[in-house]
Design a protein that fits this description.
3-stranded antiparallel beta sheet; 11 helices; alpha+beta; Jelly Rolls; 2 domains
Length: 305
């Protein structure tokens, strides 16, 4: 589900209201920049299997950045932030997505996150994401199965739901047998613990929901997760590589840029929508981080080819 017009929380009801599995093709043309990558990430309350069809770029998660190209498949669990980016301006990354809610279509053992067989074991190495590489033959086969799922759901012939479930299981099993990566162990100090990743995820969700509130603070969020401010600050930095204030600033900055590019809102309206306390502080912040005033940025964006 990449190349969203606005980062944030993608919800199940917008994709799975009339079918158990949603299949589509998406295009990402967002250039990767380390300092602004996080605001482009999104989360969802469903499982997403994304297969790179064409182009080259990057796939960004909470604590990992991988180069991706045709043949790469990523399965993103519920609540795990991620995004796709291009390497060079003018490129396009084409991704075919298959999304579903395991509890809606899979049997109990396969749909229970605590089970080792959850989603056919796709998350046995990492509870948030699974990386698979498919050679051209397997990639074509997965594409054909996705086509069959779409046809079954469109035609709704006898036992179509059973057929869709069988095709989905074929894809999950095929991918589960080809997982790339290593198993995280208790002695691996380089990977943040699952609990810390979950905490960081909670903070990011809170920020994405509340960035327009100038009164939002790390302390207020710490109270919602029952942690001390200092410990939460440490955990967030460990997982994301950013301080809490840096992350909030990046979210507000990217939203201000988007509003300047895509709307006719005044600077006062944008200041309020992005959580800045007043227009002068918004001007100073924007000029410091972008190198130009909001007026000049909007003018150059409009005139850009």
């Amino acid at each position: 589900m990449d190349a969203p017009s606005k980062y944030g929380h993608l919800r199940k009801e917008n994709f799975l209201s009339d079918r158990p599995v949603f299949v589509n093709q998406a295009y990402s043309d967002t250039l990767f920049k380390p300092e602004t990558a996080f605001p482009h990430m999104h989360i969802h309350d469903f499982v997403e299997l994304s297969m790179i069809i064409s182009g080259e770029g990057y796939h960004r998660t909470l604590n990992d950045l991988t180069a991706c190209a045709p043949g790469d498949v990523y399965v993103i669990n519920t609540g795990a932030p991620h995004a796709y980016f291009i390497k060079e301006k003018g490129d396009t990354l084409v991704v075919r997505n298959l999304i579903f809610d395991p509890s809606d279509i899979l049997d109990a053992e396969l749909s229970t996150p605590e089970s080792p067989r959850y989603c056919c074991g796709l998350f046995r190495e990492d509870p948030m994401i699974s990386h698979i590489f498919l050679n051209p033959g397997f990639q074509e086969e997965v594409g054909r199965i996705m086509d069959r799922i779409e046809k079954e759901q469109d035609r709704k012939e006898l036992e179509w739901e059973t057929s869709v479930k069988a095709h989905l299981l074929d894809i999950l099993i095929m991918c589960s047998r080809r997982i790339v990566g290593k198993i995280e162990t208790a002695n691996d100090k380089t990977v943040p613990k699952l609990r810390n990743r979950q905490i960081a995820l909670t903070v990011m969700c809170e920020v994405l929901e509340r960035y327009s509130d100038p009164a939002m603070t790390l302390e207020s969020i710490a109270e919602t997760v029952f942690l001390s401010k200092s410990h939460l600050s440490y955990v967030f930095k460990q997982v994301t590589g950013l301080s809490f204030s840096e992350y909030v600033a990046s979210v507000r900055l990217e939203e201000a840029r988007r509003l300047l590019r895509e709307t006719n809102m005044t600077n006062e309206q944008i200041c309020c929508a992005c959580g800045f306390r007043d227009v002068p502080s918004f001007y100073r912040f924007f000029r410091t981080h972008v190198g130009m005033t909001p007026f000049v940025y909007r003018k150059e964006s409009v005139n850009a080819p």
